[in-house]
Design brief:
This protein has 91 residues and is mainly α. It has one domain (3-90): Non-ribosomal Peptide Synthetase Peptidyl Carrier Protein, Chain A. Helix content is 48%, strand content 0%. The protein has helices at 3-16, 38-52, 76-90. The radius of gyration is 12 Å and the shape is globular. It starts with a helix and ends with a helix.
Length: 91
């Protein structure tokens, strides 16, 4: 299993563990497809920070809906790519 696949599994488990969230896949967008709101995303972002040992700056948080801000990772797969890059940059 690739590191990206491991990250996707972790993300789908974290997101899927929330109440009223159905099946989560790499193509799922937690804000929208899974019915999460930005407030839910803050809690998940904290869990991701702990799980992966990284800091998610507010302006990059993929769970915060910001239509006027910079492009952010929105699907679970895009989040995995973003996290993988963060890990690689830290090495």
């Amino acid at each position: 299993m690739s590191r990206r696949d491991e990250i996707i599994d972790t993300l789908t488990d974290l997101i899927g563990s929330l109440p009223n969230v159905g099946t989560v896949t790499a193509g799922s967008c937690p804000i929208g497809d899974c019915g999460l709101e930005s407030a839910d995303g803050v809690a998940i972002a904290v869990e991701i920070e702990v799980e992966f040992g990284i800091d998610i700056p507010n302006d990059e948080n993929p769970f915060v809906e910001d239509r006027d801000g910079p492009s952010r990772a929105r699907t679970v797969g895009q989040m995995a790519d973003w996290l993988l890059k963060k890990e690689q940059d830290a090495q």
